[in-house]
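Try this one yourself first.
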């Protein structure tokens, strides 16, 4: 991967379309998973966390939700959910993991009525450029304010589409923060809810800056430090006043 001097942060929009295929039991679900296009597996197993980005719990993938809710096969649903959460190396791995689970079905209802059939859909991704960062402070300042789709795109979708490669982590590593890059790569593999990943990434970034702040403070003139302290107190007071609703 070539080294970048700038990093473009993107959000993403997913255009969802039906593909004209349904499943009414585990056998037809397995055949569908083995045969549908990559964009369909992405929509049903990878994209669900973006639908509830602020949740502290990971939303279920569509396959396990249907098997649990319609077929009442809770054992198979649990194993499907686990397979979807840890299959982060792309289409082939995900397809194989899900199909393997469905080779050993549990004890659910055999066939769903036509009106409750699983309808396969696919999602086409449209990246939406948000901003370009030339260094790490710009990058994390922007990411701290970015919408959930940016975190999903860079920590979930890009590595899934590129076989595990994480361009965001590569940029951070080349910018001189290898530990931070490693942490981002770890987060992308965890399957955590988006808000949890965002919070952990920003916390790691802030911690990485503490040493530099201490060093700068040690060389800052006393009068300037006093001004900074007064500014900090004033900002805190303003936040407290706004929190009480006082104008």
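Now uncover the answer:
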């Amino acid at each position: 991967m070539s080294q970048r001097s700038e990093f473009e942060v993107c959000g993403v929009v997913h255009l969802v379309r039906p593909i004209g295929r349904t499943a009414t039991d585990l056998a037809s679900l397995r055949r569908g998973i083995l045969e549908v296009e990559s964009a369909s597996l992405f929509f049903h197993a990878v994209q669900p966390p973006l639908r509830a980005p602020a949740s502290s719990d990971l939303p279920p993938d569509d396959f396990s939700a249907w098997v649990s809710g319609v077929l009442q096969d809770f054992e198979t649903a649990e194993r499907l959910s686990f397979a979807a959460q840890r299959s982060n190396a792309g289409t082939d791995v995900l397809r194989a993991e899900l199909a393997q689970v469905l080779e050993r079905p549990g004890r659910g209802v055999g066939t769903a009525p036509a009106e409750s059939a699983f309808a396969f859909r696919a999602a086409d991704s449209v990246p939406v450029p948000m901003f370009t960062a030339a260094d790490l402070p710009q990058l994390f300042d922007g990411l701290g304010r970015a919408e959930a789709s940016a975190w999903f795109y860079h920590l979930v979708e890009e590595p899934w589409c590129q076989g595990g490669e994480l361009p965001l982590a590569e940029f951070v590593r080349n910018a001189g923060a290898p530990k931070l890059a490693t942490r981002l790569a770890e987060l992308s593999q965890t399957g955590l809810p988006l808000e949890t990943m965002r919070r952990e990434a920003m916390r790691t970034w802030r911690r990485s800056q503490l040493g530099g702040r201490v060093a700068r403070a040690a060389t800052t003139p006393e009068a300037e430090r006093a001004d900074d302290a007064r500014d900090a107190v004033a900002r805190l007071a303003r936040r407290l006043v706004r929190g009480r609703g006082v104008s």
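Discussion: DSSP finds 13 helices and two strands in the chain. The two ends are 53 Å apart (CA to CA).
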